[in-house]
Specification:
By secondary structure, this protein is of the alpha+beta class. The chain is built from 20 helices and six strands. The protein has two domains: 390 residues, no CATH class; 94 residues, no CATH class.
Length: 491
């Protein structure tokens, strides 16, 4: 073996070691240190906890009763329940499956992109991913939610589509179908968002509908439909029938379609918390999750389309990588932009594609101006270090919220938010008094640092505000009452 080959192997080995170390620190470091996020993270955490307590892994339970709000299949909750069994019932365990999903995505992306690009570009792409909120921000890699796992399955499916087109090997088709099923079992019908992109890319690659003439192609949608209806079969056999369901539907299958699909994307009042966005939804959401990389992506596309010197570079034909990425990105953007309910985390499947496009275009520019690679590396490292600093510091927004806006009535024993996480209810009542909170009576809040358990709670709907919460600690019932600072004088 020549000296150059030895150097290449050594360089590749060191790249793997460095990337694995960085990914482990960014994904798992201080994972359980921050407060639990309100709404989805706490909600799913409780559902997974009660799966273990009830032994029912098909129907969701909340506060010992059947939960009728979540219609998504339970793969994400299964992984969380397994994590509880391994690591205990704590914040780290709740977030561990999401962190694993991003960790695996980054490593698989590196292995794949080394073939598509080169080792250095692949490494820089993964470094950029690790420093981006779209991979390790809210709802994603460091949150006990469904979106990181969903992003992993969607990304691997899109790779299967890219590999299937030139080879037409059945292994890529079958793998893609299985990944779609996993995506469906993670986030329900949201997996349909990647299907138009697969069709568009195959149409472009085959210059028409020739791929439809191959009998083997139909194995993929057939397997996918079989996977979808397997969930229907489980609900029919093992599912619970709902009574007086507020969101519409007699079981989880109907809730999945009525509430989580049609209402989510067509009902203007679905987003009751006032998080709606208009024409600026896409730039606002992408700025939140991708920051400077989103604007660089737009700038690079415009430059390669409009600047004569760059237009001469045949970037769209070679490998078809950019067309592949855009085929999945554009339909996702259109659907979410025109839908009534707009949720930035539903853009997650496009985040790896946008950064891959940035990498490809920066690689092309780097061949002309080498110094651009050093700027790219510097910015990626700065974002990585910024994220590392944020993760390493204790973050307690719930406690801060209470400190700034509430104080206990004299005589009551104050609770820290790290112990109970009660700001979920306090903040809901204060910010959205007109909204019916979906966390029903007898909700047992899943505590992360102590054995304190909220057994029940009731709202005190006085005009001046305030909340009464019944707690059990060490076998004693205590009433804690919190009021807003500005309402203290009226009490």
């Amino acid at each position: 073996m020549s000296v150059s080959q030895n150097q290449t192997r050594a360089s590749g080995f060191l790249s793997w070691i460095l990337l694995i170390c960085l990914a482990m620190i960014m994904c798992f470091g201080w994972l359980g240190k921050a407060d639990l996020h309100d709404w989805d993270e706490t909600y799913y955490g409780i559902l997974a906890l009660e799966m273990l307590e009830t032994g029912d892994f098909i129907n969701y339970h909340l506060g010992g009763k059947i939960d009728q709000w979540v219609g998504k299949p339970p793969l994400a909750m299964w992984t969380t329940a397994l994590s509880y069994q391994v690591f205990g019932k704590n914040a780290f365990a709740l977030r561990f499956p999401s962190a694993c999903a991003v960790f695996i995505l980054v490593l698989l992306a590196f292995a794949w992109l080394k073939r598509i690009f080169d080792q250095n570009t692949a490494f820089l792409t993964c470094l950029t991913m690790l420093g981006t909120k779209g991979f390790l921000g809210d709802h994603l890699g460091r949150t006990g939610d469904t979106d990181a796992l969903f992003m992993l399955f969607c990304f691997l499916f899109m790779i299967c589509v890219y590999e299937y087109a030139p080879s037409q090997q059945l292994k890529w088709g079958i793998s893609g179908a299985l990944l779609l099923i996993l995506g469906f079992y993670t986030k329900g019908t949201a997996v349909f968002l990647v299907l138009p992109g697969a069709g568009l890319y195959l149409l472009w690659h085959f210059k028409g509908f020739q791929f439809l003439k191959k009998p083997s192609f139909y194995l993929v949608p057939g397997l996918f439909l079989l996977g979808i209806f397997s969930w229907y079969g489980l609900i029919r056999v093992l599912g619970t029938t709902y009574e007086n369901n507020l969101v519409g539907g007699h079981n989880a299958w109907e809730v999945l379609w009525n509430y989580d699909t049609f209402r989510r994307f067509s009902d203007p009042d679905f987003d009751a918390e006032g998080l709606k966005s208009g024409w600026d939804f896409l730039p606002v959401a992408l700025n939140v999750y991708l920051g400077i990389w989103f604007f660089l992506w737009l700038t690079l596309i415009c430059a390669f389309l409009l600047v004569p010197k760059l237009r001469a570079v045949k970037i769209w034909q070679e490998k078809g990588l950019l067309v592949w990425a855009l085929a999945f990105i554009i339909p996702n953007f259109i659907v979410l932009q025109v839908s009534s309910g707009k949720f930035g985390w539903y853009l997650a499947p496009t985040f790896p594609l946008i950064l891959i496009m940035v990498s490809e275009l920066m690689r092309r520019l780097g061949q002309m101006w080498t110094w651009l690679k050093f700027i790219w590396l510097t910015v990626s490292v700065v974002f990585l270090l910024t994220g590392l600093q944020k993760f390493s510091r204790a973050s307690h927004p719930k406690r801060d919220f209470i400190t700034q806006n509430f104080r206990p009535v004299p005589g009551a024993v104050p609770l820290t938010l790290r112990e109970s996480g009660l700001s979920l209810y306090l903040e809901s009542k204060w910010r959205f008094p007109e909204t019916q909170v979906k966390y029903m009576e007898n909700l047992r809040y899943f505590p992360e640092w102590t054995d304190l358990t909220v057994l029940s709670r009731e709202w005190d709907f006085k005009p001046e505000g305030g909340v009464s919460i019944e707690l059990e600690q060490a076998g004693e019932l205590k009433i804690h009452r919190w009021v807003r600072e500005q309402d203290q004088g009226e009490n």
